[in-house]
Design brief:
Strand order of the largest sheet: 1-4-3-2
Helix content: 25-40%
Shape: elongated
Structural class: alpha/beta
Distance between the termini: 34 Å
Largest sheet: 4 strands, mixed
Order of helices and strands: EHEHHEEEHEEE
Strand content: 25-35%
């Protein structure tokens, strides 16, 4: 029995913007269009998708792990804005786990938070509980979707 291939789908208003942000945040890459097409727009037009359904831009709306390990993430354009706290969020584990000294984990997390902020994220709150050996930063992507860096 084979394991299913997982794709994570995130509803959003601006797929190209979020694809670019998450590619930077996750060290992924924006998924290239199938050969021989120069853009996803050219591919979808070739497949018969009407121009008016494609919106603007080159239709780059997904990111992939360049090492082929992590899941593909597709950013699906939807008409409604985010209304409440998302029920699913990404956790970016960069600290190294509880086997790494607390101060080292905290330093790694804060360095990654700064890098991701430069890509367009914003910091919501810090969860700093040295007594429970836990440190994380709750952040938002450019459309307000929450995620954690720990």
């Amino acid at each position: 029995m084979t394991h299913p291939k997982i794709q994570l789908t995130i509803d959003c208003a601006d797929p190209e913007r979020l694809a670019a942000f998450w590619a930077a945040a996750l060290r992924y890459q924006v998924e290239p269009p199938p050969a021989p097409f120069a853009t996803w727009r050219a591919y979808w037009l070739d497949q018969g998708v009407p121009e008016e359904e494609l919106g603007s831009g080159d239709c780059s709306d997904s990111v992939v792990d360049p090492n082929g390990v992590g899941p593909r993430i597709w950013f699906q354009q939807v008409p409604e804005p985010k209304a409440v706290k998302n029920r699913l969020h990404l956790d970016l584990g960069v600290g190294g786990g509880r086997g790494v000294p607390f101060a080292t984990r905290k330093e790694r997390v804060l360095a990654e938070v700064e890098r991701i902020e430069s890509a367009g994220a914003s910091r919501l709150r810090v969860q700093d509980a040295e007594d429970s050996n836990s440190f994380a930063v709750v952040m938002q992507d450019p459309e307000g979707n929450e995620f954690c860096v720990h």
